[in-house]
Amino acid sequence: QDAHMEERKRNGESKWEDNMSWEEARQKLVQDGLWTASAVKIIRDLLE
Prior knowledge:
Elements: H1 2-10, H2 22-32, H3 37-47
Region (Disordered): 1-20
């Protein structure tokens, strides 16, 4: 998984597009199995 992400970075296909909305980012994290309740809390704390 990490190697695949690095390959995408080298190919200029960054997962995090500059114009990506929070919902799009959340959906990508869900798809990657990275989204957790703690991550939600951290981001909400950062946005407050």
